[in-house]
Amino acid sequence: MKLLLDTANLADIRYFNTYYPIEGATTNPTILSKEGGNVLELLSSIRAIIGHKKELHVQVTETVCDKMVEEAEAIVAFLGPKTVVKIPITDEGLRATAILAKRGIDVTVTAVLTAAQAMLAANAGAAYVAPYVSRQENLCADGVGTVAEIVKILDSSNVQTKVLAASFKTAKEVLDVAVVGCHTATVSAGTMRNLLSHTTTDTSIARFAEDWKKAFGDVTLLGLLKNK
Ligand code: E4P
Q: Which helix (H) or strand (E) holds 55?
């Protein structure tokens, strides 16, 4: 399952883009509002960090189809190749998605809570549908199960649409959607860290270093190979 970083924080994007195998970054109006300041400069900076080979997902703020389309085209013109426009799942959004897909603009249909919504988005030509996992799990609904249903529907249909699961609060939820065949997920910096970290990994690594040092001192294998 491919991973994107769900943030507009430049320090986090710089860090995870350097160290982690991420395919890009996703934003929404709430995420952008957390950083504040000049939003166009912020989006340009994100693009500069990740380059043009990775995806940057940016959500429209207009709510009527014609304006959404105009805004989406302006976003792509501003941020260039590999920009994906996020459009919320509404009547107007579905129509805008169909128009943009025909014009070759990739759309992530967002704020998806049901498999029925995802099916409509896929039929409209969305590149991705973004089901919200934690926002369902928080209400005792089966967020992971919804992702599984959507994966099944899309993989057995004649559509190119991929599932971009979003809204995670735990690393376990991310792993759970990977297990049910989800294509892509976008996760926060904290959850991304939790996917990697494990105290037993830390103690194992510390033990390797300790045992090596006891036997061979401060030299490294690289040092020995260079001086052989
Ligand atoms: C993607 O960008 C979604 O908008 C985002 O994952 C929603 O996450 P939240 O439910 O934590 O706000």
A: strand 55-59
Q: How far is the CA of 152 from the centre of ligand 1 (A)?
A: 22
pLDDT digits (tens, 9 = 90+) for 100-122: 999 999 999 999 999 999 999 99
Residue 132, ligand 1, Cβ within 6 A: yes
Distances (CA, A) of 109 to 56, 191, 197: 14, 23, 31
Per-residue pLDDT tens for 24-68?
999 999 999 999 999 999 999 999 999 999 999 999 999 999 999
Dist. CA 59–CA 96, nearest whole Å:
13
Domains located in the chain, CATH noted: 2-197 (3.20.20.70), 199-228 (no CATH)
Angstrom distance (rounded) from CA 97 to CA 59? 12
**Per residue in 19-47, is it b (16+ CB within 10 Å) or e — as a string?**
eeebebbbbbeebbeebeeebeebbebbb
CB of 135 sitting under 6 A from ligand 1 = yes
Cα(31) to centroid of ligand 1, in Å? Answer: 8
φ, ψ (nearest 5 deg) of residue 81: -55, 155
In short, whether 5's Cβ falls inside 6 Å of ligand 1 is no
Q: Considering only CA atoms, which residue is closest to atom 7 of ligand 1? A: 167
**If you search the block for the tokens 């099944």, which residue do you land on?**
152
Q: Rounded CA gap, 84 and 56, in Å? A: 6
Instruction: Say what the pTM is.
Output: 0.96
Token duo for residue 149: 């249903």
Annotation marks residue 228 as catalytic: no
